[in-house]
Task: structure prediction
Amino acid sequence: MAVRDILLYPDPRLKMVCDTVPEGQDLGPLIQDLLDTMYEAGHSVGVAAPQIGVPLRVVVVDVSGSKLGRKNNHGCLVMVNPEILEREGSMTMREGCMSVPDYTGNVTRAEEVLVQFHDRGGTGRVIRAGGFEAVAIQHEIDHLDGYLFLDRVSSLKTDLFRRKQR
Amino acid sequence: MNHYALTIIGRDHPGIVSRVTEILYRRGCNIADSSCSILGGQFAMLLIISQPEEESGEDLLHYFAPLEEENLSVFLRTLRPGGEIRLHLQGELCMVSVYGSDKPGIVYRVARELGEREINITDLNTKLIGSEQRPVYVMMLEAMLPAGMSVKDLEQAMAAVAGELQVDISVRAINPVEL
Result:
């Protein structure tokens, strides 16, 4: 369909809580735009609908082409109304975001997540994702609630030396 | 527009940032980049500021005189045009962790090894941890490898330094991911 422009912060649409998609709504064009936009960016492994200005709970994630996610992934995921049911473990990655260019920060997230969503065909699914794929899913779902990775950045220095002050 | 590098350091106490930024605000200065932290018992502020008024550095420094009276040391350097712009570095980013019993020369020895290989240190933090009887020195640094150098190459170089200094050194790639 079309590669869409990615909204850049401080666009207020990036800080909004997105609406749940009602059952039966035709999401075909939106999903295709999200996929086209993600793949066109080349290095991107996920895009959330609010990043292209659509305030609906839809994200796409595909880490299969990246070095970090190659070994452990579910391929191309289209997630409608995704919800994280369980979180386990924690891992820190240096995250960046197409909506916040030129800045990366360390973010600690769950290492494994159990996610419930509807796929492109409207089928209800539950998957367990780990590692980079889990991080990507959490990052994209955060967009649906108006959270950017900047809301989750932890300082390297504070993390490392926090124990000392206990 | 003039850009300045402003350094302020003094015994840590509440209110330093507020005092400094009030002066900057009143002079119409913008803080373009900054890093502030407690180092030992000292609060250190490093700021890149811009000032549209085109006051000379000397004139601007004058407004910080009250801080000197509060035992804060103030240093202001006028940057050459373009000096405020961050260089765009390209290469693999990695993190080097060094830790071991405290002794002089750890930072120098590691930094020399990196410098000789044209490896750019982009961030460096050190801390003394452990107990008074058995102090442990920790250094974490981020560095950008030049084109053609791999994390493995650096690992090998660091292994030799680790043996010589009797410290532990680990090198790992940081892969910033764009999501």
